[in-house]
């Protein structure tokens, strides 16, 4: 060990960082105490039962709340809000102390007042800072803080907040000041969130999957059963699933690019970028990344299911039957050049489209997108994105080929599923083509640079624009 690190270790063991008090010896109190001790702090617990210190980290002291409060300026309140009442009796001992409220609730809007503000009204002489509530006891103890390194802090006193920021830094965490104590309820809502950005894309994905699955089920299995009295329900497991997955993937990929195009047409119509988009469009644009990642998941499923086709019993049986029939009838299977082109082009567009789709997914990961500048990111997401959509649409068109011309494809007067899958992507590609024509492109570029179309009798109002920068 280097002499410096020996000295550091020795200093740490002496607790040279100062004293920190923790009220409550529960899960969070113990995990935080352990990390503070490792960082060189002296830790003093305030507990209802100071004699019961068996589970506490080695080196920590335990006292009554009143005694513990005397030892430190910063006190972490690792107690549930419901048990805060007893703190009123400690008002004089807590005078001028920094109380760090780490509490969370069970559901949003559980109390009219945030826990931190409530604590501040219970102990008006203390300075309350809200912090650490977004870090879990488990993450603190295991040290697995890579995805959870940021401590969000809010409070009304800069000095008090700085003391908590210093503690966070010495634990190897980053700190982000979220403003005054009024922001506490916002911070308390964060751990209660359940994939808020994924809800709409999930609903869209499930809805599309259900609709298309039922559609192909009726057209393929039910139709055969009713018209030919044949049971082909076994196709539900692989064939039908492998028809529905790529449709959902393609439609969802197109849905990622449709709001950007709609926004561009809206800006052209308004003649300004300073007019707010409708809320539904804003919401839609905010979840494009999640829509794209779900589309990629369905494309993955399509690839996996396709790989499994050659080992299916049904396929094996059909091939065997076909070959033996050809042998029995002494026929040859002529090579069809057009069919070979069609099949190879179908596979090539599918593979290229999927490869670009994966690339898009990778560049949307924060660790990758953070390393790109805005131009690089928008180039990948927009240009490569539209190219991916074009390739995947071509893949579907080649799959359909001339089937749409055959009357037998319209079972019960319904169009084949691939035709339905092509509607949104084709609309997106055609509109995109219109937008990149020189006259449209020039106008939209000027609007993006702040130009506004003169309005008769006044200037357009500079309202807030979309919360999302536009990638077209
Ligand atoms: P916990 O394991 O239940 O511990 C709570 C502690 O509060 C108890 O150990 C007890 O300590 C003290 N206490 C209980 N009843 C009391 C009363 N009537 N009067 C005074 N003190 C009482 O809870 P926790 O998981 O550590 O959570 C503590 C706080 O941290 C909560 O507000 C929670 O929302 C927040 N938080 C927890 C986590 C987490 O991962 N656990 C993450 C973020 C935030 P004594 O017996 O020593 O008095």
Descriptive tags:
single chain; 472 residues; alpha/beta; Rossmann fold; 8-stranded mixed β-sheet; 17 helices; 54% helix; elongated; disordered N terminus; binds NADP nicotinamide-adenine-dinucleotide phosphate
Tell me the total number of β-strands: 8
| Distinct ligand kinds | NADP nicotinamide-adenine-dinucleotide phosphate
In the predicted model, the low-confidence regions spanning at least 5 consecutive residues are 1-15, 461-467
Task: Estimate what percentage of residues fall within beta strands.
Answer: 5-15%
Proportion of residues in helical segments = 40-55%
Count of DSSP H/I helices = 17
Radius of gyration: 32 Å
Categorize the overall geometry.
elongated
**What is the chains' assembly state?**
single chain
> The biggest beta sheet, please?
8 strands, mixed
How many individual domains?
Answer: 2
Strand order of the largest sheet: 3-2-1-4-5-6-7-8
Description:
It is built from 17 helices and eight strands. Helices cover 54% and strands 7% of the residues. With 472 residues, it is α/β, with parallel strands linked by helices. The protein has two domains: 3-192, NAD(P)-binding Rossmann-like Domain (Rossmann fold), CATH 3.40.50.720; 199-303 and 336-466, no CATH class. The longest helix is centred in the middle third of the chain and has 30 residues, at 199-228. Mean pLDDT is 91; it is low at 1-15 and 461-467. An eight-stranded mixed beta sheet has the order 3-2-1-4-5-6-7-8, sandwiched between helices. It has helices spanning 3-14, 27-38, 65-71, 115-122, 137-142, 158-170, 184-189, 199-228, 241-270, 279-286, 288-308, 313-328, 337-363, 366-369, 374-400, 417-435, 438-448; strands at residues 19-23, 42-46, 61-63, 74-77, 98-101, 127-130, 150-155, 174-177.
